[in-house]
Amino acid sequence: MKKIQCEACGSVDLVFQDGFLVCRSCGTKYLITGIESPQKAKNYRVLARRAYKEKDYTNAKRYYENLLADNPDDWEAYCYSKLSNVNMSNEKNMHDNLVAFNNSVKTIVELIYKSSKDPAELRKTVEDVNKDIMATSKYLYDKSDDYEYDYDFSLLDYDEIDDEKADKWEKSLNKVNDIKFQTCMMVAQWNNNIRDQCEDIELGLEKSFFIENYKQLVEQLTFIGRYEKVNLQKTIKDLLDYIHTEEPDWKVY
After folding, report:
1. C-alpha gyration radius of the chain
2. 23 plus 98 within the same structural domain
């Protein structure tokens, strides 16, 4: 990957600070406001990838959106601006950000498949993006536990239960479950769209690719406290029908 150099002193030790790219050696600040040349586009991509890798999602989103404004069909910019946005989520907006991402998955997959006619290149892209989507789904699934109202009923007699606190706990649990369900939908939408595209283009994806994705999906669904939104048995049956193999050694409890 090409490194960005400070134009003032030649150093490659640059960091993000308060919306600027700052040279640690001489202190020169750079504000990138638009793509004016192919070289600047390359710099944007370098900055975006670096920021995403360092989990600086605010700057990753900014640089990817600049790339996207220059080229709306840039699959990487479209996908990772969306992933950056959902990784920045907090308690107030996580559910809505997940819904927005899930609604964009079909477009992400279509743009990926339009980006190259080389099956090997497409397979590598799909595998790389898959890792980031699966990791984001698991991260947000776990993070949502922080939003549950902590009220230990086991320490109380029935007559001592505070109805107001109990109601607050129930509402928080419903909200957490709704978030968790959307993290599961992230995996399901991605997997289903990849499978649909694979019917048209042979990528050579191994069955293990889909098995591992479905395994994470079912494991996450299993621990959602409310099940009426999803049929676990149908999910498992669809998995087994697709992979045409014996029942895997993992179970749903």
Report:
1. 22
2. no
Nearest to 182 by CA among 237, 101, 242: 101
The answer on 229 and 139 residing in a single domain is yes
- Per-residue pLDDT tens digits for 35-58: 455 667 778 889 999 999 999 999
Specify which residues 20 forms β-bridges with.
Answer: 17
What is the total count of domains within the chain?
3
Question: CA dist 164 to 86, 148, 156, 160, 185, Å?
Answer: 32, 15, 15, 12, 32
Q: Please state, rounded to an integer, the average pLDDT across all residues of the chain.
A: 77
Show the low-confidence residues of the chain (pLDDT under 50). 1, 35, 153, 155-156, 226-230, 242-253
134 & 183 share domain: yes
Query: Is residue 69 domain-shared with residue 10, that is, in the same domain?
Result: no
Phi, psi of 148 (to 5 degrees): -85, 130
Nearest to 11 by CA among 34, 27, 31: 27
* Claim to verify: residue 107 and residue 198 sit in the same structural domain: yes
Give Cβ neighbours of residue 85 (< 8 Å, ≥ 6 apart). 57, 61, 97, 100, 101
The domain in which residue 56 lies consists of 36-88
Helix (H) or strand (E) holding 70: helix 57-70
